[in-house]
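Workshop exercise sheet. Pairs work together: one partner reads the sequence aloud, the other fills in the structure field after running the prediction. Swap roles for the next sheet.
Pair: D.N. / O.F.
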Amino acid sequence: MSDTSFSPQTAIVTGSDSGIGRATAVALAKAGMDVGITWHRDQQGAETTAEEVRGLGRKAVVQQLDTTDVPGTAAAIDKLADELGGVDVFVNNSGTGDGTKFLDLDYQTWMSTLDTNLNGAFVAMQTAAKRMVKASRGGRIIAVTSVHEFQPRVGASAYDASKHGLGGLIKTMALELAGYGITANNVAPGEIATPMTGQEDEDPTQKERPGVPLGRPGDAREIAAVIAFLASPASSYVNGASWPVDGGMLQMGPQAGSHITSNDWRES
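Structure field:
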């Protein structure tokens, strides 16, 4: 399959009822794709995303998705793909965090976070990949991980493990799916002003973050722009990559270490 033959028409974005997912769905609609939108608890949020997509002249279909329900996850992705007429781009954005420290973390909470962030992602991406292979049109699979794919955070044992695992899964997928003209990549956001970080509808440029070289949190649209590139024909030679989109935060490791003046970091 030549690099120039990929022409995406359809996309599915999980967890697209708000935040990064919504911004991504809109960005892909602007790029000319019909979009499948999923929600877990916020159906109205998903319908709002769908309205934005339709306002751009693209088709939008909405489906409830609980990635802890493994059989239901595959069925939901298949239903969306059927309604769209295929899936050329799949963005795994669904995720959660529990904020529980290692010594306090019970097995049920551990498994719930891993089911949502990793096991459900495996099922969803495999379902989409099988459809891409069958269609023989190539494809793009993009997972939204986190800077915690690379670096840990206090109070995030299950979250860190799931994001590390998702990062490794995508890299293996990149090896195995390349022969079908399908690329697989990660986007690893830093702190982004979204409902997950308690910053919905806030202007990130007005938030001071001295520990980030750019001095602020990110905007969901800044993540979506990178995802849209990776979903496009222009990214044809990007495969198995993990792209931090964090304002340079990951580069602060030794610098941050030498400038920490209290033990506050020990609390999540």
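Discussion prompt: The chain has one domain: 7-266. What would you look at next?
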